[in-house]
Amino acid sequence: MKKNILLFLSLISVSLTSYSQKDTTMNRTVIVENNYNPEIMDASKINVLPKIEDFKAPKNDIRYSTNATPLTSFSDKTVDFQISEPLKRGQKNGYLRAGYGNYGNTDIFAKYVVDLTSEDRLSFETGLDGMKGKLKDWNSHDWNGRFFTSHINADYSHYFKNYLFTVQGKFKSQVFNYINHGGFDKQHNTIADVNASLSSLQDNTPINFYVKMGYRSFAQKFALGDFKQGSQGDFYINGNVWGKLNDESNVGINFEMDNLSYSSRTLDGYSALRTNPYYSLKGDDWNIRIGAHADYQTALEKGVEFAPDLLVQYSIDDRYQLYAKVDGGVMLNDFYRLSSLSPYFIMNRQYLSTSVPFDGKIGFKASPMNEMWLHLFAGYRINKNELSYIVSSEPSYTQFYQDKANCVYGGGEFRYSFKDLFDINTKAVIYKWNSKAANEDLFLASKPELTLDIDLRYRVIQNLYLNGGFSYVKRIDNKDIIGDYRYKYDNLNNLYIGAEYEIFDNISVYAKLNNILNSKNYREDCYPTEKFNFIGGLSFKF
After folding, report:
1. Which domain CATH number covers 358?
2. Is the dihedral of CA 8, 9, 14, 20 positive or negative?
3. Residue 437, strand partner residues
4. What is the pLDDT of residue 75?
5. Looking at the 3D structure of the chain, how many domains does it have?
6. Where does 409-520 have alpha helices with state H?
7. Residues 6+ apart with CB under 8 A from 6
């Protein structure tokens, strides 16, 4: 272990002496499946990759994750309007939004940005969202459900001549209750993250870098069993170092290291190091990337796991592209990830890391006309230690199965924009799952067979925008008998519509209607979500 740490520290020492390029953050789509969409901070999991010359899509090009998601992807919340991202450099410094609706739906958000100097920026952000209202559980019993998430973030950035230095502090609180079957129905999670990062800013230097170091914690106030005041801590470091060999090629390495500790006698702390060395080469019409994932853990399934990192892209012309990709890697099933999958999870065991030794896909991207974008894809994914919800007839806490699960998937995405008047985004994915689990039907019960998302946005007049859409998840058609209770994960659907109107300069009113079809949706382990619900309020820029 000492040798591994010395090698890792040597890598970081080399990377911090020789760089300069603006970091580019790889977007990861994290799909949260729960009742009220609590957000778990994952700022420490940023990966930065060098630019690879990609397909020349229209200016409104969008990119989605095409990986087979481990759990059902669905949200019963409307997509936020433009006001959700109100602040950009050169615009208004302050933003405030407040709204309220049935089921006690609450939406409060505020942000303020201060440019201290031309090189220094300070920003503050706080918010509260959630609900408290009467819901019907799977047995048609009343349940006074509640889930409130509040957060406070502070960021400071300083621009040096060739580098960007950033310090972040983030705190989040989740207060919610369980479906009560034993006299205990409350929980309080606190999540904190403090970190600092340094990155190069130039594009044309031989060596470039991004590195972040920090500490984050996850604690439950009312943890059960051996946990008492259960908590997890994580000292982490991640980043990327890359350099140009010539105008056509570069070489680099992505890295992440986590050092986890627990306040439990039954869970062992451990370290995990994930590396991704790669080589990329580009021509006039093609790109090639050759690399590998090498992931090492000191506990659980300790040892090194390997996965490929291969990409071939070929552009037929500026508007059409073919690609083939083989990827993989390891995801830590720590408390942060478990809570993002289900905030109702119980800390009663240590889950093995989910490993993807192979995720191969082929695809076609096209932009036959300006403002139109099309993406077709198909793939096959192998998941080791995949997570799946445990179905229970009387749930209070969410537990997970782990087993091997393979998935064939395919789908398409389409986007079209007409000037600044109309936008449509659609995505559909079909999944075919199989598993060698002892009870395959139960293990795959929560997995999707089909996911569909449609989102529309229309500018009616200068200051009035309408937004609407439909989300649908078809789950695997199987049933399990648990005792005397017959249970099946039902399909999910959400039809929603909303509007935003700017009354005066910098003052807007907004409203959102969710679950217009008044569907009974159960996200996981019989936890219900809101039926028809709405929220409305005001927003201010200042």
Report:
1. 2.40.170.20
2. positive
3. none
4. 42
5. 1
6. 440-443
7. none
